[in-house]
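debug: dumping io for the single-chain case to check the tokenizer round-trip. Nothing else runs in this session.
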Amino acid sequence: MKKPGNEAVVEALSTLLASSYTLYLKTHNYHWNVTGPMFTTLHTLFETQYTELATAVDEIAERIRTTGAYAPGSYSAFARLSTIEEETGQPKAEEMIRTLVSDQETIADAARHLIEAAEAASDQASADLATRRLDIHEKNAWMLRSHLE
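debug: decoded output
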């Protein structure tokens, strides 16, 4: 049964889920299509990051279910909810990195928004999930950004 007062938390979790799934797809795309002198390094880094995101989307969706709501699970729902834009082109490696840095920072912001909503609803479990996601996305952004220095 849906708990009263958790609509803001479910909305923030759904945005985090959709954004994470979109970033998963984009990172996987970049893993498949990266070329150039940083190929091996980026191919491996992108695989590490999309693999972690695959686990994350499951955890986020299951958290939505524990609130009594249903998790979005279609491309159309993700497109509507996501704060991450899908990749439709074939960017060069350096542009892939810049895009992923920005996307990691965008999802970190979504995690911060979830922390605020969860704390307002006294939902410690969702706040904890968001805090863990924030840490991972900030670290991923740093790792990616380091390739541009």
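debug: round-trip ok. The domain at 25-146 is CATH 1.20.1260.10 (Ferritin).
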